[in-house]
């Protein structure tokens, strides 16, 4: 009889112990997975898409604008025996509309305000959309991009005062924030 | 003979209780951490679209393998910084935690993944801690810096810890 009582006590003890440990919260620890796909510029949430052969996505997945012989599209044209230019000449102005596009592929379907800044050779400027008499190319501008939309960006090169053989280079910086751009005009 | 029977019956009863208990606790609550983490509370809550519950556990997924992938925007590009407000939230359900306040510590082992309490205060950290009062929630944002990462899948873990009581 005593033994049976003992067994019951033991069981009761285990039950109480389990219940007690469940009822009082003391500590919680958990590892949670984070999975990110690193994808080329033209597949990501905010895409940079080349729209002309002068722009392309390099092996590292980054957009490159290249008007020289290091551009692989240049060699593709050469292979086809098509005469192509090797660069831009001094003292001239080149305007390339739709050099590349910026699109908004965020999953939340929200508009963004993109601030594009360029740093490098002063001869290069950028503009949004078509090039008209009123277009002012700049080193920095703001543009609102709505979900699913692609905004074309053009490039202007003013090689005045530059010598042949000189290389122009610079870096574009893209900085986007949630919401439409506030009108600054 | 009887004694032997008794002693074999006892473990069987214990094993049965153990299993009965497991079935009883585990089944009715889908988001349960009772088995691995020895606690039967859930405090994590994904805030779509970049986070979801994968088999009951929070998972942050920015790739075309996410069930919430809308068909565009396959991931993040290299050498880019992304800041997302409200990726998931920590909820202190007092009836589960039994604590009027819990202290939560979230940490990441890599500078690629930064953490902050939403909305983005302009700063971030690899390890953040904050208090969650009873029946309230705190939204957590994440900052991804893909500088130096090559193309492909990137997998990491973040660790969530919670203690009953305030952070001190």
Tell the overall outline of chain A.
Answer: elongated
Strand content of chain A: 35-45%
Unreliable residue runs of chain A:
19-23
- Report helical residue fraction of chain A: 10-25%
InterPro entries (chain A): DUF1102
Protein name (chain A): DUF1102 domain-containing protein
Pfam family, one (chain A): DUF1102
Describe this structure in words.
The complex is a heterodimer of chains A (about 180) and B (about 170). Chain A has a single domain, classed as Immunoglobulin-like (Sandwich). The longest helix of chain A has 22 residues, at about 1-25. With about 180 residues, chain A is of the alpha+beta class. Chain A has helices spanning about 1-25, 70-80; strands spanning about 25-40, 45-50, 55, 65, 95-105, 110-120, 125-130, 140-145, 150-160, 170-180. In chain A, a hairpin with a 5-residue loop joins β3 and β4. Chain B is α+β, with helices and mostly antiparallel strands and about 170 residues long. Chain B has helices at about 1-25, 35, 95; strands at about 45, 50-55, 55-60, 80-90, 100-110, 115, 125-135, 135-145, 150-165. In chain B, a hairpin with a 2-residue loop joins β2 (about 50-55) and β3 (about 55-60). At the A-B interface, α1, β1 and β2 of A face α1, α2, β3 and β9 of B.
